Amino acid sequence: MKPTTLVTLASLLGTSAVAPIAPTPPSIEQPPKWHNESTPDIAAIMSVPQTAFESYALGGLVRGGATLTFEGDVPPTAAGDEDEGGVGVTITNADTAWRAFYIYYNTCDYVPYKYVWVGAGETVFVSLPAMFQGRITRGTDEWNLGGVPRPLGTWLEFALDNNSWIWGDVSLIRGCDGGVLLWSLDSSGSWKGFTEDIFEGAPVDAFDVKPSGQWVIAATENWDGTTNWSSMIWDFEKVGPEVVYVDDAHGNPVIASKNGRFGTYWPAGRL
């Protein structure tokens, strides 16, 4: 490859990828009773200093399972669940188009437990069963419902304990396809995550490619335990281990919500 070609590629990767994907949701009913939750005040949430609330290296979070389920039925599409005050999370889609979010059990990377489509600028509630342990990722039906694990991207991890507290974090260990903000809904003021775009300016070797062709920040830890230093250093510098998991050894990126409820906010990402 000519040097000029390499320079051109390096300059483009941080700001562009393949043509933007604009998936269209299937036909789903959107009950107005719970489809439009109140819009969160992101500036107010993030104005609370990290020193003002309890943060944990792990706390009551359960981040992995001993076994994987290889088969399962694809759940029906939903527009969100009725919010009756029970345990669960709100999902705010801060993108400019419909987006889908996939909720996985820790023990099953192949088929989501449930998934929801959320309109641009809208917020929905997703209820969770007792003792749920898993994650939410952004994605598309094409890539997330094919029965193949799609781990590359930002993970919002969470777990309910036997007191119905919910513990959670934002993790970049498996990559970063965009920012995510997480906050407690128990009036503690705790929050983690980030909303800024960290793709621009990243070194070429900090990127990986999704099956869709979208360039995203690579995983910081490989499945064999080795480290991707370029992406790890970039994540440390741009976000930091106090608000996200950059790796398993640094920071206190976990919070708890004692009423079993989290809010989440999803800026535009790369699908």
From TrEMBL:
Record has Signal as a keyword: yes
Record's keyword terms, sorted: Signal
Highest rank taxon of the organism: Eukaryota
InterPro entries the record matches: Osmotin/thaumatin-like_sf (IPR037176)
Annotated signal peptide: 1-17
Descriptive protein name: Uncharacterized protein
